[in-house]
Every structure is written in structure tokens, then in C-alpha cells.
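Hello Y.,

Per our agreement to keep a running log of every chain we model this quarter, I'm adding this entry. I've kept the format consistent with earlier entries: sequence first, then predicted structure.
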Amino acid sequence: MASGRQSSREVETEAEAETDKTLANIEPEPDKTFANIVSAYTSRFGQNDDQTTVTEEQRTKRQTAAAELADSYYDFASTAYENGWSTHFHYTPFAPHDTIQSALAFYEHRLALLMGLRPGMKVLDVGCGIGGPAREIAKFVGCEVVGVTINQAQVDRAIYLTALEGLSGKCTFVKADFLNLPFAPSSFDAAYAIEATVHSPSLQKVYTNIWRVLKPGAVFGLSEWVMTEKFDPLDPKHIGIRNRLERGNGLCNLHTSEQARAAMIGTGFDVFHDEDYAQHFAWLSAKRGNGDGNGTDIRLYNHNHNHDHTSQNEQHQLQQHHHHIYLDSPVLVPFLADPIPAHPVHQATTTSPSSSQSQSSPATKRTTTNASTSYSSSSLNLRPAPPSSTSTSNSTPSRLIPPHRNWWWPLEGNTAQATTWTDYFTAWKMSKWPRRICYAVLWTLERLGVADRGTCAAMTTLAYCVDSAVEGGREGIFTPCWWFIGRKGGEENREGEEEGGGGGGGGGGELKEGSEQNILYYTSMDR
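Predicted structure for the entry above:
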């Protein structure tokens, strides 16, 4: 018996020793205190203030740890985004009388309409943040949205906010790396990514993962952060702005619009909409005589146009460049109450909502009308068109034309352009003196041990986030929302789905030659 008890104790001792040995070989998880999170993030970037001495070696190291970089960034930035901006983690252009919230919602509604989302679809939100766009699109369309994000805190917050709105049955959220999406092939009817895939070290890799989980014929709507064609990689000023954008936003490698376009096409998406949405209302600036006259850069693909039915002035607007057609005009139709002009790209007869109807209530309205097409095209999405020639003619006094507001006006603290007190406060918080006072208070509290260590370092990072976006916007070398909307192959499947309606495939709002179709016109007060 004694020998047996001794053997048992020996076994227990050996087991404990083996456990201790195993634990000793396991690398302990880093202490996720606020200070360590911020320190882990900032250590991946250069320490000089202007960020002009960033080396390619540093950028390469960030690319190998892109997921960890984004995860650590949102561990401290998400709360600041939500409290200082919105639950919708993206920027937006502004109509003359938009609030920040209505502009963000219009952005998401417009993307959903251009993608042709319909009730009953299962839609993937790639890089969902805390679920603001997912909830808005689910309410607007009536579809099911599955959001993925690399950050567990964002997943938890998204689930909580979604439950508050009673949308848990429509929106679900998953912690996942969008370079390795945990879904079976052909799982989704559509997908969108709103200013999120910029965190990927390789755009084509993330687009390929999205391609894999989409059904044949499904539409992918992408809004990408890019450096524009004006970016000069040899200009030290431009280099500094790009580096500060990366430093302030958790980015490993900020790409150009041409690189994003090439990645979309290289992945195999048939891109049918290509636009710098940040310049959506830039025509207002040109009409008032304080712009360069360049409207939205819109590119329409693979369509034949009959120039016999166009005036010389209209023909002059169509400038051929390879397979692109450039229109120096904003995207207005079908998202305004203005009539669709007779134009070769979308010649349509329609009865639009009257201006009195569109201004009768601040609430957003939707009016459905019939449009008949009279152009030759095998398949044409309802496209952006120039404004009506009578709505903003050159004879209109500039004082009667609403002022143009750049997409970055809240970020530069321009309180004069706020349309509500809420927006005034949002812009005021980002102006110079409130930020300086806030930093001084936090610095004192951090030294006294009241605020977490690393708070001031986090605020410095967020200052890079805001200031670099303003710099890039002013220089015209950066846009936060270049839109590419493309379709995965499988047109034969798509036609069958359109005839039956309902899920699968993605709509795109196509009109066919000689056909009539109900078009959803989206109008709101003062638009």
C-alpha cells in the first residue's frame, strides 16, 4: 500500500513537472494594457514628427504584420472614432445642406443602389468596424449583412449596438482576417468594402478572397483609400503626406488609384463603375468660380454610343481615352430630384419628383418612376449624368448657388460650414485650440496617473489621422472613397436570378435596350 501511494505521488509529481515544463515553453501573451497597445503600434513607425524619413524596410515590416497593426490600432482608435465622428467609420462628400449623419447615410444608400442590392440577399461587409454601414444598409435594403473585422472589441461593440437597434436578425459580425475569410466558396450574393481594404498589404490578395466567397454574377462594391493620379512619388511633400496617412490610420502600404484599379481587374472583376466619389459635389465649386472646373472622374466601360443623336456640345463632353469615357460632371442621377437630361449615356424619359415634393419633409423620400431607354447597349447600369442645363446654368448668379463643402471640412475644424449644432460641435472638437487644450489636460492627467499611460501618444496618432487627411485632400493627392463596382463572372446565372427576383447574384440596376424598368429615385430635402 505504501509502495502504491508512493507511486501515485511520483506520478503526480512527474505530471506537475511536465506541466511546468510545458508552460515554460509557451510564450506568454503580451499584457494588453492601454500603454502596451499604443506602444506596440507606434513602434512600427518612424519617430520623427513629419514622418518623411520612413524607409522601405519599415514599410515592408509593417506589411508582414498588417493584421496585428490594424488590430492594435483599432484597440485604441475605435472609441475615439465613435465619440468624435460617428459609428460609421468612413468619410464622405457633402451636399450643400447635408449633416454629417445624412451624408454618411446617403453614401451607403447610393452604394447599395449602384450595386443593385435587394431584399433577401446575403451580403458580406468586409472590414465592418462597429457595424454602422451594415446596419444602415440592412435597414435601407432589407438584406442580411455579415460583417467581418480583425478586431474583437469592434465585434463586441457592433453586436451590442445592433441589438439596441433591434437588427440582430439582420446583421451578424465575425472576427476574421479578410485575407483568410472563414466562409465557403460562393457563399454571398454580394459584398462591399467601405474604406477598409486599405489595411491589406496586397489589394489583389484581399480582392481575391472576396471573389472566392461571392456567387457567380455577384457584385462587389469597393470604396478604397488611394493616392490619386496627382500623387508624385518623388515629391518630398507628397511622400510626407502619404507617410503621415499611414502613421495615423494603421496602414502598412497606401496604394494608388491605378494600383487599386489594376488589382480589381487582375482579380477578374468586370468593373462597370469607377469614380472618385469624394468629388461628387465638386461641380458646385467650379460653378461659383473658385474651382478648377474638373468634375467627378467617371469611367464607363465597354458601351457603344450613337453620336448622331447628340449635339456638338454634348459630343465635346465625351472625350475618348482607350476604353474609358470621361464626363466632366458630378454623379447626380438617380439620386437627385432633377430631371434626367437627354444624354447619349443615359437617354431616358422620366417624370421626376417635383422640387416642392422633395422639400416637403426633412425625411428622405423614395419615388419610383418608369424610364425607357433609347441607346444601344447589351447591358447598361443607370449611370451618372451631367446636371440639367437649366438647373445650374452659367447665367445663374454665384450667390444663388449653394457653397461647395470639401469632404474634409469637419476635419479641419471649419465650424462655419456646419448645418446643425451637432455638426458644429464635431468640427469644433477638431479645430486647433480645443485639440491643444485637450492634449494639455490629458498630458497632466497622464502624469498624475489619472489617465492611462499612452493616452497622449494615442492622441498624437489620431492627430496624424485627421491632419494628414486634410493635407492630402487639399493637395488633391488623396481620396478616401474611390469607388470601383464590379461583377464576378457568371452572367448566365445572373440573368436567371433577375427573372426570378430575390437573392443571389447582385443587381447593378441594369437596363436593357428597348426595355422599361422601375427605377428607384432617391431624393431628400435640399438635394
